[in-house]
Write a structure and sequence with these properties.
The chain has 80 residues and is mainly alpha-helical. 50% of the residues lie in helices and 8% in strands. The protein contains 5 helices and 2 strands. It has helices at 6-14, 19-26, 30-37, 44-54, 75-78, and strands at 2-4, 63-65. It has a two-stranded antiparallel sheet.
């Protein structure tokens, strides 16, 4: 499962906040924010800090995306 933070960036735009404003308000590090920019999962503690700072719920700032599963192939399919 992949974590997407697109909703968070939209919330910041709607509230006329920068990522630096968020970082200071939530008390998170710049490296944590950089991870979020790359859709790298962060701890629930970080999500909680952000939600408290923005007065919102986690589903207001993140989405999940199912990763595509690889379909097993039969041995006979490899012999073609």
């Amino acid at each position: 499962m992949e974590i997407l933070y697109k909703k968070l960036w939209k919330v910041l735009i709607d509230r006329d906040m920068t990522q630096t404003d968020l970082r200071k308000a939530a008390g998170i590090s710049s490296s944590t924010l950089a991870q979020m920019n790359k859709n790298i999962p962060v701890t629930t503690a970080v999500v909680e800090k952000i939600c408290k700072a923005l007065q919102c719920k986690p589903d207001d700032i993140l989405n999940t995306k199912e990763l595509r599963s690889i379909k097993p192939r039969k041995i006979s399919e490899y012999k073609k």
